[in-house]
Design goal:
Oligomer: single chain
Helix content: 40-55%
CATH superfamily: Spore Coat Polysaccharide Biosynthesis Protein SpsA, Chain A
Largest sheet: 10 strands, mixed
CATH class: Alpha Beta
CATH topology: Spore Coat Polysaccharide Biosynthesis Protein SpsA, Chain A
Structural class: alpha/beta
Number of domains: 1
Strand content: 15-25%
Number of strands: 10
Length: 331
């Protein structure tokens, strides 16, 4: 199915990075090539694509970049290094990074670009998110990141940081950005990680708060992001425990060292309230185990009608656009 209404209509660059699952990644870049003016595929998986395969992508407007992982730069920096490579060769004023197995909607991308064009005070913009899941071969949908509803972080630097920490969602990683702002934030993130190496489950916080230093952000009411909860996650950063918060605090002290009158303990307290799973006690783990087993017995009603989910959450969407996205994720 081709989205003829919006075909190549959005002047935005989509960066898609991958270390594995190439077939899924190819489906993703092909999807974006239908609706966006530039798609850049940064591929770490070997063997790299052949010249013939690369030429096929080129004909669709997809730029292919083979990437060599540098173990000395560390696992925590590899995703940002790859995205920076793509961002530096992108041709558009706006760009967005996409996970290799997820989707942004046409209307979401288009409206975010319009928002950035109309509001020069914004550095990045996102929309609303849902997740697609599968249980016993049946597809169903859930709301993701309810904090994005009416999210608007327009203030001075200190207040932006406090607001994001208190109303947390990983929006900066998945937003539409002004190109140079994205490059600056990515470089700042890489420098911070290189100053203090670690591989905790909360490494994402460095980019998220570096984004708040860069400028204002908001979430529009349109459906923007479809998370893929069918494909198994590939995240290997699983280090947990109370010490994780100390590691992140040390990194934030490096990142935020030039900001006056900022109380980092306020940020950390917000993160401790949000990321409760990071430092679970033995008793809390038992409670979670019991709850998981109870869910198996008393199954929560699953929403198979995506339109109902979107309407109930007051999320704006286009039916043809939505059909294109879901079809591309379930083919």
């Amino acid at each position: 199915m081709t989205n003829k209404i919006f075909k190549n209509n959005i002047n935005i660059t989509v960066l898609v990075t991958s270390a594995s699952q190439r077939e899924i990644t190819l489906q993703t870049v092909n999807y974006y090539s239908q609706i966006c003016s530039e798609v850049i595929f940064i591929d770490e998986q070997k063997p790299y694509l052949s010249e013939t395969e690369v030429n096929r992508l080129t004909l669709k407007g997809i730029k292919y970049i083979p990437y060599e992982f540098d173990s000395q730069k560390g696992l925590h920096n590899s995703p940002y290094q790859k995205r920076l490579v793509g961002a530096n060769v992108s041709k558009n004023e706006y760009l967005v990074h996409s996970n290799h197995d997820e989707r942004y909607t046409t209307i979401g991308l288009s409206e975010c670009v319009k928002e950035l064009e109309n509001n020069k005070e914004l550095s990045f913009c996102i929309g609303q998110a849902i997740a697609i899941r599968k249980n016993n071969s049946k597809i169903h949908f859930t709301r993701s990141y309810k904090n994005l509803s009416a999210y608007e972080n327009i203030n001075n630097t200190n207040q932006r940081l406090y607001y994001h920490a208190e109303t947390y969602a990983p929006l900066a990683h998945y937003s539409v950005w002004r190109k140079q702002s994205y490059i600056d934030v990515t470089e700042k993130t890489i420098q911070t990680h290189e100053s203090l190496h670690s591989s905790t489950i909360l490494e994402e916080l460095i980019f998220e708060l570096a984004a708040d230093i860069e400028g204002n952000s908001k979430a529009i009411p349109e459906l923007f992001w479809i998370r893929n909860r069918i494909n198994p996650p590939t995240n290997t950063l699983i280090e947990r425990g109370e010490h994780v918060f100390k590691v992140i605090q040390n990194k934030l002290e490096i990142l935020l060292s030039d900001i006056d009158d900022l109380k980092i303990e306020i940020l950390m307290n917000s993160f401790r309230r949000h990321f409760t799973f990071v430092r679970l006690s033995y008793f809390e783990r038992i409670i979670i185990f019991i709850k998981r087993n109870l869910r198996k017995i008393f199954k929560k009603k699953q929403i198979s009608n995506i339109n109902s989910l979107l309407l109930d959450n007051k999320i704006l969407y286009d039916k043809d656009d939505l059909s294109l996205v879901i079809e591309s994720m379930t083919q």
